[in-house]
Design a protein that fits this description.
Structural class: mainly alpha
Number of domains: 1
Number of helices: 13
Largest sheet: 2 strands, antiparallel
Oligomer: single chain
Radius of gyration: 20 Å
Shape: globular
Distance between the termini: 71 Å
Order of helices and strands: HHHHEHEHHHHHHHH
CATH class: Mainly Alpha
Helix content: over 70%
């Protein structure tokens, strides 16, 4: 009986870490695209909550969870389109606009949820897992890692995809140039504004997917303000990763473990105040920033608006 409890606890713990990691991973990869192109996208917390609401609503209205993920990407892109308009096209302050979009998205989704559902919180159906033949039979690790929802596999497969994109493709080189040497990219005949707009829109889609995952898979329900700062942690991950997607994954796993600590400690019967447990991920963020923040390599033109033709 003790062995059964231990295995069940470990499976639940690892599965919880994975569930908490996926939104952070998608947010960090999305922010990494924007930062490579020179846009400090502070608004990804707003994109994530917009993706969570729109993803939940599309899934609930259509009774199709996959349409919900498309809706989540769409919701994130709506907010990112405003970011691209105000910051990339009009050259407004990226930090101010990002904060405003986050606050606006939080308020808008809360209001929409209240108008649509009042004080009800309808739940979605559970997404069926897709076991990986052979690997899913491994004790403890198999059920926790290789018998997961398809979107979990897709999220982790994005890491090698982004490594290839950044290092081996022309688009990756243009993203790098837009963030480091925008004037040189402009001289080469490539529109800096176009590349930055594409980057911001891609960020919105990825972050929106992360929010949709929280509402559709992790929780099965939408609750206002449910992102709880995951977007801001994604910004930290992207800044500290130095342009390396694999580092985003490593950081997401660390912070995901901190976020899942609440459930793990409760299951283990450890008596720790909830407020202290909920502070763990943000305490970890501050500790990482203190230890490694100075070593973060950021693009030279990050946060700076660019006017076509400038030298």
């Amino acid at each position: 009986m003790q062995g059964l409890f231990t295995d069940a606890f470990l499976i639940a713990l690892i599965a919880g870490v994975v569930a908490a990691t996926v939104p952070l991973l998608l947010a960090g990869l999305g922010e990494q695209i924007s930062e490579k192109a020179g846009v400090l996208n502070i608004g990804i917390e707003g994109m994530m909550i917009a993706g969570a609401y729109s993803g939940f609503y599309f899934a609930w209205a259509s009774d199709n969870l996959w349409l919900g993920f498309l809706g989540g990407a769409f919701g994130g892109m709506v907010v990112s389109a405003l970011m691209a308009l105000f910051c990339v096209r009009m050259g407004l302050n990226q930090i101010v606009v990002g904060i405003a979009l986050t606050l606006g998205a939080q308020g808008a989704t809360s209001l929409l949820h209240y108008e649509q559902f009042s004080k009800l919180y309808p739940r979605l159906s559970v997404m069926e897992p897709l076991p990986v033949p052979g690997l899913s039979a491994i004790p403890v690790i198999g059920p926790a890692l290789f018998a997961r929802e398809p979107v979990v596999y897709l999220a982790f497969l994005m890491v090698p995809l982004f490594v290839w994109l950044f290092r081996r493709t022309q688009l990756g080189l243009m993203l790098q140039a837009a963030g480091d040497k925008p004037a040189a990219l402009d001289t080469a005949g490539v529109s800096v504004l176009k590349i930055r707009t594409i980057a911001v829109m891609a960020t919105g889609a990825l972050v929106g997917l992360g929010g949709a995952f929280m509402a559709i898979v992790a929780a099965g329900v939408f609750v206002p303000f449910m992102t709880h700062g995951n977007g801001y942690i994604g910004i930290v991950l992207a800044m500290l990763a130095r342009g390396r997607p694999t580092w985003v994954l490593g950081g997401a796993l660390v912070f995901g473990a901190c976020l899942s600590a609440t459930t793990a400690l409760q299951v283990a019967g450890v008596s720790v105040p909830t407020d202290i447990i909920q502070m763990l991920p943000f305490a970890a963020v501050m500790a990482v920033l203190l230890l490694a923040g100075r070593k973060a390599r950021l693009p030279a033109a990050l946060g700076l608006a660019y006017t076509r033709g400038e030298r």
